[in-house]
Amino acid sequence: MANQTKSRTIVVCGAPAVGKSSLTIQFVENHFVDSYYPTIQSAYNKVIRFRGQEIAAEIIDTAGQDEHSILSSTHTVGIHGYVLVYSITSRQSLELAKLIREKILNFTGAEAVPMVLVGNKTDLHMQRQLTPEEGRDLAAEWGCSWIEASAKLHETTTRIFDLMIAEIEKSINPDGDGQGQCNFL
Ligand SMILES: Nc1nc2c(ncn2[C@@H]2O[C@H](COP(=O)(O)OP(=O)(O)OP(=O)(O)O)[C@@H](O)[C@H]2O)c(=O)[nH]1
């Protein structure tokens, strides 16, 4: 049915303390969380308008992953797309992002999954360890979207999920124009 609300489940993953919760909360609740409480796992819901359709998004904010705890197969069941976050202030967090993507591909058995690679904490430019090109080039190699963001800026978080929904819809309907813009309710 044309007007039926679609559901899309999105996992936000990445190294510890890169800002997964802060980005998610800024997007869903429109405020910046300054304090740091490591996440176990939280889920958020938000209705997104995409090309005139309402999409019920469930956003799963995962516990930070390191070399020893990189997601589990449950994070790939029924998941439509992945927001993979690193911090532009941490080269190690980008190395971990590479491992996390490999793990996701191993679990799903796919060559590619809908993904947005996000370089967070752009406001901390004095502490930058990674250039924009490093993130952009990696995403080009992977064939996914890439964006730099700050969890302090609501607009950059809406752009992340805009790209995420576009990636998901493109994978489901490869013949679409892929240019749709999202509006967040
Ligand atoms: N300056 C700045 N600080 C940020 C940004 N995003 C997150 N932080 C801070 O970084 C710390 C960690 O942020 P979280 O959102 O808790 O990180 P996380 O990735 O969810 O952490 P885990 O749950 O441990 O994996 C907090 O003190 C945040 O306030 C950002 O864009 N800019």
Automatic annotation (TrEMBL):
Gene3D superfamilies: P-loop containing nucleotide triphosphate hydrolases. Its main location: membrane. InterPro entries: P-loop_NTPase (IPR027417), Small_GTP-bd (IPR005225), Small_GTPase (IPR001806), Small_GTPase_Ras-type (IPR020849). It catalyses: GTP + H2O = GDP + phosphate + H(+). It is found in: Endomembrane system. The keyword GTP-binding applies. One of its GO terms (biological process) is signal transduction. Signal peptide: none annotated. One of its GO terms (molecular function) is GTP binding. GO terms for cellular component: endomembrane system; membrane. SUPFAM superfamilies: P-loop containing nucleoside triphosphate hydrolases. Keywords: GTP-binding, Hydrolase, Lipoprotein, Magnesium, Membrane, Metal-binding, Methylation, Nucleotide-binding, Prenylation. PROSITE patterns: RAB (PS51419), RAS (PS51421), RHO (PS51420). It is a lipid-anchor. It comes from the Eukaryota. Belongs to the small GTPase superfamily. Rheb family. This is 4029_t:CDS:1.
